[in-house]
């Protein structure tokens, strides 16, 4: 076997870092080191702000397919970045551009999370959806059952695409946290039969759907890639919706019995210039 080096003649697909489906995702969080910032001269700061904004500009050449920055609440970070692209080095390039700029020495990375987009195995197929409707009281084959199934079938492709190549909702508030499903004797998610996991996730999905128009989720998978199994990114129209959905879900069996959560990061979507002004790195605010 030939070593997979640059310039190897192996066909591109054999050495590609791009997943066969879906995108790489990194969430990265930073604080500013104030003493390092204070040591920068005004010209360096100005050039630093320019390069910082270029690194976080979703429209810049070479930017990942999706790029969003947040002002982060509390002491865990000053700001956060969510980057998604089929090419992992394009995703990671954002972090390196931030560090390589004049503000780089004043940036302290505080947390990162590496994952991939996926369609959960519990998203029902059209057939499973049809059965589920009957279990919920629809009469099999009735006009209303058929209409619902047809509606689901026509949305299914777009739904799956939206999970693999997600658009970011235009909402101002976001949060991120990693989670696991428990693996304890007597409470091991991974030893439950698929039908039972599906039942629990259907209950979870119903709760989620009741927040339609207020909260959207992006579930990315990190099994084998990072310290937790999934990353949960939520966007909401208002911060209290985040509190409400997470609280409500704590009572769903899938969360109440089986979920374990890592640190929560809460943020407000903001372009680079606003982050710098808010953090008193540049701009007019005193
Ligand atoms: O994809 C779908 O919309 C179908 C239904 C659905 C699935 C399969 C769904 C709906 N989720 C699914 C999978 Mn979800 N989700 C979380 C959390 O805080 C907690 O208690 C848990 C964190 C929230 C808040 C949330 C919200 N969901 C998953 C999975 C993958 C499990 C696997 O594959 O094993 C996880 C880890 C997870 C966790 N869920 C929804 C929501 C919301 C708002 C919805 C409605 C659909 C949407 O807005 O996207």
Number of helices: 10
CATH topology of the domain at 24-117 and 269-278: Alpha-Beta Plaits
Say which CATH homologous superfamily of the domain at 24-117 and 269-278 is assigned. Answer: Apc35880, domain 1
* Total count of strands: 11
Question: What Rg do the Cα atoms give?
Answer: 22 Å
Q: How far do the termini sit from each other?
A: 62 Å
- Overall 3D shape: elongated
What top-tier CATH class of the domain at 24-117 and 269-278 fits best? Answer: Alpha Beta
Beta percentage is 15-25%
Q: What is the makeup of the main sheet?
A: 8 strands, antiparallel, barrel
CATH architectural label of the domain at 24-117 and 269-278: 2-Layer Sandwich
What spatial order of strands do you see in the largest sheet?
1-3-2-11-5-9-8-4
Q: Helical amount among residues, as a percent range? A: 25-40%
- Small-molecule binders: ligand 76R
N-to-C SSE string, H for helix and E for strand = HEHHEEHEHHEEEHEEHHEEH
The chain-level structural class is alpha+beta
Mean pLDDT: 93
Q: Segments where pLDDT lies below 50 for 5+ residues?
A: none
Topology of helices and strands:
Blueprint: H1 12-15, E1 24-32, H2 34-38, H3 42-55, E2 66-72, E3 79-85, H4 88-100, E4 107-117, H5 126-135, H6 143-164, E5 173-181, E6 183-184, E7 187-188, H7 194-209, E8 215-221, E9 230-236, H8 239-249, H9 253-256, E10 259-261, E11 265-269, H10 272-278
Antiparallel strand pairs: 1-3, 1-4, 2-3, 2-11, 4-8, 5-9, 5-10, 5-11, 6-7, 8-9
């Amino acid at each position: 076997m030939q070593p997979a080096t640059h310039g190897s003649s192996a066909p591109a697909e054999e050495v590609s870092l791009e997943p066969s489906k879906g995108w790489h995702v990194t969430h990265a969080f930073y604080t500013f080191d104030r003493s390092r910032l204070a040591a920068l001269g005004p010209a360096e700061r100005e050039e630093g702000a320019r390069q910082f904004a270029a690194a976080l500009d979703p429209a810049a050449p070479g930017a990942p397919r999706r790029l969003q920055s947040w002002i982060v609440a509390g002491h865990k970070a000053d700001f956060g970045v969510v980057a998604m692209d089929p090419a992992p080095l394009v995703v990671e390039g954002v972090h390196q551009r931030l560090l390589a700029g004049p503000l780089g020495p004043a940036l302290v990375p505080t947390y990162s999370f590496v994952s991939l987009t996926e369609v959960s195995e519990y998203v029902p197929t059209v057939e499973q959806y049809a059965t589920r409707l009957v279990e919920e009281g629809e009469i099999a084959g009735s006009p209303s059952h058929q209409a619902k199934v047809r509606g689901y079938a026509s949305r299914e492709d777009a739904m799956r695409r939206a999970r693999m190549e997600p658009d970011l909702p235009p909402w101002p508030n976001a949060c991120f946290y990693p989670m696991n499903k428990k693996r304890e004797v007597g409470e091991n998610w991974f030893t439950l039969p698929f039908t039972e996991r599906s039942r629990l996730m259907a209950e979870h999905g119903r709760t989620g759907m009741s927040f339609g128009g207020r909260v959207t989720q992006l579930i990315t998978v990190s099994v084998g890639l990072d310290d937790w199994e999934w990353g949960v990114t939520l966007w909401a129209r208002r911060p209290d919706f985040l509190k409400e959905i997470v609280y409500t879900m704590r009572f769903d069996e899938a969360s109440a019995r089986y979920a374990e959560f890592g640190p929560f990061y809460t943020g407000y979507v903001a372009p680079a210039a606003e982050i710098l002004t808010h953090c008193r790195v540049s701009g007019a605010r005193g």
